[in-house]
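User: My advisor, Dr. K., asked me to get a structural model of this assembly before our group meeting. I'm new to this, so sorry if the format is off. These are the inputs:
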Amino acid sequence: MKNFKTGLHVLLTFASLLGFLGGWATLAHSRKPIQPTDNSPQGLDPLPALAPMPAIGTSSSSANSNSGLFSIAPQQSTRRSRAFFATSGS
Amino acid sequence: MESHQFRAMNTEISIAAEGSLQKLAPGFEKARQFIVDSERRFTRFSEDSELSQLNRSAGTWFRASTDLLTVILLARHYVEQTAGLFDPAILPDLQRVGYDRSMDLIRAQGVFSLPQPATRRHLAFDGVIINPEESLICLPEGMSIDLGGIAKGWIAEQAALILADYSDVCGVSAGGDMYLSGIPENLSGWPVALDDPRNPGRTLVTLNLPPGAVATSSIAKRAWKQGGKDRHHLIDPRSGEPAETEWLSVTVVAEHVDLCEVFAKALLIAGPLEAQALAQSNEITYLAVDHEGNLLGTKKSLEYLNDR
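Assistant: The format is fine. Below is the predicted structure of the whole assembly, which you can bring to the meeting.
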């Protein structure tokens, strides 16, 4: 019985040591993990680039989400001479 | 393009048409005479006008002319369409805040009365009883009405239709409320300047408009001081006071001038928060200018800027 116990201890010790060394060797030869600084990792599609936010008041017709209206940039020149009529409220 | 200008309805009237002056002259004169006659009928500043007679008849039946009946029927329709934001029965409130004489006189003399709080809700226009077959109108007792804006728009359109007998391409503008018929030669539409309400004479954009109508309502022009208090002519029927709105002016483009005039007023009173629902439910195309001079417009309105 005592010999059986001694043999079992040796067997478990040997198996544990073998497993530890095997795992170490596997990890040591595996591919390195992806680093956060890597901009173009192999096997991954690059993220789509986001369009820049439009600057408020610079576009000729940008949507105003509050009222459903579009912002319209005033014309640069008054050009009144080419208009037949004018409307401004009375 | 030949043109003719004169003053009526306390505003500048501008008439323009394509053709020889010799051919157009009788048309110009007929249109002018119609405007002058209509002003006499619809003004609230003359005791003799048909409108003043109607106001004095409140509580009894009044037999109206075809023109007055037509405008009253239009007004009733628009009171419903605007959920009461347009209401000709605000006249007592308008007079209380100082608009008790013509704007020409107020500009020359100022306002004598002092600010007073609204004492009671005005009688709403939907209480008016109309018998179109007999051309009879009955205002509820105590009611008096002002048809200023809607009548001015309707008159401008009728004058343009008179002129259209003399020229396929013509337009009539009554203080910026205008009806345009045909399209000017060699152009894709009518170039109409939309003025900055803060600086009249400075054009914000030039619209390129199809035949039809456009009108602008503004709180910047018909404004005065009453006892040191700033007042303007656009009464909010819900409060009986001059409307407190984030916009200075609203311009509407549509088929008829009376519709443009009424909705420009209603949208201006409604302001940004309520205007969208009102405009969408009535398919109204409009542009608004806020107190900083920023110009905003519905998606459809952008089509009128396409020549920029």
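One thing worth pointing out at the meeting: Chain A touches chain B through 26 residues (CB under 8 Å).

User: Perfect, thanks a lot.
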